[in-house]
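Course assignment 3, question 2. Fill in each field.
Student: A.L.
Task: Predict the tertiary structure for the chain below.
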Amino acid sequence: MNTRTTNLINAGKVILLPVFVYVLFFLCSRGNFGKPASMIMNFKQTLAPTLISYAMCCNMLCGRMDLSAGAVVMLSAMLGAKMVYLYGIGLFPFVLVVVGAGLVLGTISGMMYLLLKVPAIVTALGVCMIYETLSNLASISWVTAINGEITTLGRFPYCLIIFAIMFILFAILFNDTKFGYHVRACASSQQIAKNAGVDTVKTAFICYVVSALFLGVAALLKISIQGSIDTPMYMSSTNIIFNCMLGIYVGLALEQYCNLLIGIFVGNFIMNMLTTGLLSLGLSASLQDTVSGIFLMIIMIFTYNNQRVIDFINNRKMKKELIKANM
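Answer field:
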């Protein structure tokens, strides 16, 4: 089988997964799910979570769970909206405030991790609580909203252009730079990478800086597309990142068939379809979480073990052929 055929088969496998989810919910909801306008909105609402997944990806590969990412997104968006509310700033200053805030806040998270020298998840929880408190101080009400010209970047084609730029940037950083090679080395083994000459401390700091940039842009897209951001309370900002983390895991499972970046996007699109699909079935929030978890587990089991199933089927065929040949 030549390379082109293999690539086409792999692409078909990647596309088959979201198609299967779509068809399943379309049939179960009797056509209530999957209308063109709804799918366009699903696609649009996948852009910001995918950028959050890219932001978290390098740290997660290296074993660092940054639970403060959601708080960074919410606080950055709120600071931008606050400036609009208080001073009536225009679109360009709004972009600078939101992206700049994300860059600064995310970098502070990285510095805290490196200076305190405690497990990343402990630092992230502490930073998350601090940022949530600041978000409450920055919020205008329970829901901080923007409208008019300020939401321009959340419309087509601007949101797609921003996403495409960040996608290309991450692809270059992850696939074609020394930083990307160091991240993959650290993902395999931090100690072996260190023994091989990789500066693991510097790599960790750059991971947080890259993450901060993508979180800032994700905050910009999120509030521009939604037009509002909720005030986080009691670690509710972590809800933003859980589906993004699951999107990364789906992307890692699909990596054997496609580029990791594409797999992460497909993973987030599937998670978004799961949410809207379960809503179309009228399930309660608690049941939605349960069904999402079960459904994701089934997808992961199938994705990681489909080659075993294929091998099992092929072995059975070979045994039958051998039995027939010996008869």
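Instructor remarks: The first strand starts at residue 143 and ends at 145. The chain has a mean pLDDT of 87.
Grade: pending
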